[in-house]
Amino acid sequence: MGLRAPPLLRAVRAARRRRGLQLTRTTSSQAPVFDRELKLRHRARAAAEDAAGVAYLREAAAARVVGRLRDVAAREEKKTALDLGCGAGHLRAALEADAVDGDVAGGIATLAQCDAAPEAVAACASRAPAAGFATTAVVADEERPLPFDDASFDAVLSSGSLHWVNDLPGALREVRRVLRPDGVFIGALAGAGTLGELQYCRRPARGRGIERRRPGVRVAARAGLAAAEEERTGGVAPRCSPAARLADCGQLLHQAGFRLITVDVERVQVDFGDAFLLLDDLQRMGEQHAPLAPAPLGRDALLAAAAAYQHMFPAAGDATALRASFEMTFLIGWAPDTNEPAPVRARGPG
Questions:
Q1: CA 323 vs CA 22, 38, 112: distances in Å
Q2: Number of domains making up the chain
Q3: pLDDT of 104-115, one tens digit each?
Q4: Which of these, 318, 31, 45, 52, lies nearest to 170 by C-alpha position?
Q5: How does the average pLDDT of the chain come out, rounded?
Q6: What three-state secondary structure class fits 223?
Q7: Are 334 and 180 in contact (CB under 8 A)?
Q8: Between residues 102 and 324, which one has the greater pLDDT?
Q9: Residue 144 lies in a domain
Q10: 3-state class of 5 per DSSP?
């Protein structure tokens, strides 16, 4: 008969196993982060209301994706491309605006547009024929297997939709699957620094470092959303969407099977008259938070956070306005060319 551990030690080991199992479940790549159905309703409303007046972020991301496509992709042959998460067609508009005398970036001859929101796909399909290339529009969810055969596209492009995908590693594997050998993926998504000012206002200030940076900030920060909400409800609910960190993006592309990976960041700053105009723009463009368990926010807490935001982050040269920063993370990866020779391994002695 073998020796058994004392009861107390066995209990400690069992507790550790339970904690380990729980940690494994909650950190799984399959665990949902966003309410996908709610986000699709946001997208549908933005497409139905024609959010062209507030689509500046999607337009800026699309223009930068097209610029990168022109920089990295040759135009020696006609090519097919996929616009993943097309929205209202901002990428197509950017391709048309960039084309000169029929010279389309990347040599694209056919652009397939897909989105999980049928209203967005319908808006794309209703537009006039594109100049210089053909277009198609289909309903396809970035969170599910794409309805395309393996190696269907020379390029897969995405401008401003992948940060709402619950399983980003799985979506990148699907992108890799539908790419032809030596095809390129260029994507833009919101980075972790997006709306950093708003997230900062949500946290009560701690430590003297904040006081040293700017007099009066500590008092204002304590009047932020987190402190106001905690005072009124006894708790704080997450109200800012999590985003992929720059350090993780390259690893995600590598795990999906891409090579020659490039990741870079551009920051865009937009000034608003007040915090409510910022929140209104986010809602109209379909970019508001989509939590799994929505928690109503009281009017008093929202007013307190807006006042803190105005005090802490005024626009440059205009104390009556405030600034909001948006971080655009750009991913570039190439599908391996199957015709490339395998690397030669050095032989050992003998």
A1: 40, 28, 36
A2: 2
A3: 999 999 999 999
A4: 31
A5: 79
A6: coil
A7: no
A8: 324
A9: yes
A10: coil
Phi-psi region at 119: left, alpha or beta (left = phi > 0; alpha = psi -120 to 50) = alpha
> Residues 68-108: pLDDT tens digits?
999 998 766 789 999 999 988 999 999 999 988 878 999 99
In terms of domains, do 215 and 123 share one?
A: no
Distances, alpha carbon 326 to alpha carbons 68, 194, 264, in Å: 19, 4, 14
**What stretch of H or E contains 119?**
helix 118-125
Q: How far apart are CA 10 and CA 228, in angstroms?
A: 44
| Residue-by-residue DSSP string for 64-90 | HHHHHHHHH---SS-EEEEEET-TTTH
Supply 84's token pair.
Answer: 């993943």
Q: Give the total residue count for the chain.
A: 350
Per-residue pLDDT at 25 exceeds 60: no
Is 43 found in the same domain as 151?
A: yes
Residue 21 is assigned to a structural domain of this protein: no
Chain CA centroid to CA 125, Å: 24
Same-domain pairing of 126 and 222: no
Taking each helix axis from N to C end, the angle separating 299-312 and 225-233, rounded to the nearest 10 degrees, works out to: 160
Both 184 and 283 in one domain: the answer is no
The whole-number pLDDT of residue 256 equals 95
* Alpha-carbon torsion angle 274, 277, 283, 284, nearest 10: -160
Q: Is residue 139 part of a domain?
A: yes
**Picking from 44-48, 214-218, 290-294, which range would have the lowest pLDDT averaged per residue?**
214-218
Q: Which residue reads 């008969």 in tokens?
A: 1
CA distances, 252 to each of 77, 167, 259 (Å): 30, 11, 11
Enclosing domain of residue 295: 196-238+272-324
CATH number of the CATH domain containing 249? 3.40.50.150
Say yes or no: 48 and 189 in one domain: yes
Q: Choose between 260 and 302: higher pLDDT.
A: 260
Judge if 203 and 248 occupy the same domain.
no
- Asked if residue 128 and residue 261 are part of one domain, the reply reads yes
How big is the CA angle at 30 (ends 145 and 337), to the nearest 5 degrees?
A: 50
Rounded Cα distance between 338 and 179, Å, is 12
245 SS3 class: coil
Tell me if 25 is assigned to some domain: no
Identify whether residues 145 and 280 lie together within a single domain.
Answer: no
| Residue 114 phi, psi dihedral angles, 5° rounding | -140, 145
